[in-house]
Amino acid sequence: MTPDNHPVAADRLTLADPDTPFAVVDVRRTRRNIGRLAARADRLGVALRPHVKTAKSLDVAALLHEGAKPCPVTVSTLAEAEAFAEGGYNDITYAVGIDPHKLPRVLALSRRGVTLRVLLDSTEQAEFVADASRRAAIPVPAQIEIDCDGHRGGLRPDAPELPGIGRVLHEAGCLDGVLTHAGESYFAPTAEDQRLAALNERDSAVAAAGRLRSAGLPVATVSVGSTPTAHAAEDLTGVTELRAGNYVFFDLVMAGLGVCDLDDLALSVVVTVIGHRPEYGWIVTDGGWMAMSRDRGTAAQAQDQGYGLVADLSGALLPGLVMTAASQEHGTLTAREGVPLPDLPIGTRLRILPNHACATAAQHRGYHVVDGSRPTGEAPAVAGFWNRVSGW
């Protein structure tokens, strides 16, 4: 389908036509990114459970299995779980801590034949999941979250309460396994740091699973993953599945860590030049933080990329031009020191490569799709429009 804000027929639509700002996905790069991690998971001997939180799109997810049976997925919201269940995905992990108010929606999906795993890290959560499962006569599979580094949530592998939580779940038929996420890997600046983060992630999950098994409890799933560690792991012995999400699009943070190249970035935002402030060295566009998000994830890296790097409409980077400031609907482009500011007349369309693909994608209701393997010229053809799931 195509959105309703373009002025020409779908078969003649190019990136020069829709009103700006809008999000663009390069399907060739997306396929390449997907294939790269799938091949790595095969080499490591683990199942891949992609996290759909970045794209939140059934069309993007279809590239993960290319016409075969829908693959297992990870979600970050129940809205995603419901949308993907409607799309035929019936093996889903909801990788955010569960609360009692959300269990009716979980059970509703379970009654439809969807295996929907929930995540928890406390005795209180285990007890209300077990109680709800007994009342509904539907065991809700649950994974215990393990804190391997970031302390956002989860139990340390040696937490004294771990076996007790496992037993509460097991007695209700709900214990599925353990799950961890190396969130600190997003700040691991070298390949060696990322390798060590992947090793710690694996060891933490495997150790927690071992403690549960030593207590006589079954552990079917040992789940690990983040985009940096998924690409850095060398040995996943003891792990059953690998999760990652950002890798389908990648972004400037991942490029800054060396996990990918700039040529791998599959998501961009098309904006239009709407003004100039030569006295300040500014080019002004109609793409502010409402189009790009406020994420400044590269600010802590060796090369601060502002709110994003700037490319022409065909996707070729404009050397030294950076989106350095943003208000709600205005973006400011400036040149790095020693680089002349290019002459970009009002009306010029540009593509901005984002810091954080998840955050930028969330600003848009869908994606205009281009195929980077085809000759593009100045106005690449739009192959379609892919809707995006929103809400919680």
From TrEMBL:
<dbReference type="GO" id="GO:0036088">
    <property type="term" value="P:D-serine catabolic process"/>
</dbReference>
<dbReference type="Pfam" id="PF01168">
    <property type="entry name" value="Ala_racemase_N"/>
</dbReference>
<dbReference type="InterPro" id="IPR001608">
    <property type="entry name" value="Ala_racemase_N"/>
</dbReference>
<dbReference type="InterPro" id="IPR029066">
    <property type="entry name" value="PLP-binding_barrel"/>
</dbReference>
<feature type="domain" description="D-serine dehydratase-like">
    <location>
        <begin position="266"/>
        <end position="371"/>
    </location>
</feature>
<dbReference type="Pfam" id="PF14031">
    <property type="entry name" value="D-ser_dehydrat"/>
</dbReference>
<dbReference type="InterPro" id="IPR051466">
    <property type="entry name" value="D-amino_acid_metab_enzyme"/>
</dbReference>
<dbReference type="InterPro" id="IPR026956">
    <property type="entry name" value="D-ser_dehydrat-like_dom"/>
</dbReference>
<protein>
    <submittedName>
        <fullName>Alanine racemase</fullName>
    </submittedName>
</protein>
<keyword id="KW-0456">Lyase</keyword>
<dbReference type="InterPro" id="IPR042208">
    <property type="entry name" value="D-ser_dehydrat-like_sf"/>
</dbReference>
<dbReference type="GO" id="GO:0008721">
    <property type="term" value="F:D-serine ammonia-lyase activity"/>
</dbReference>
<comment type="similarity">
    <text>Belongs to the DSD1 family.</text>
</comment>
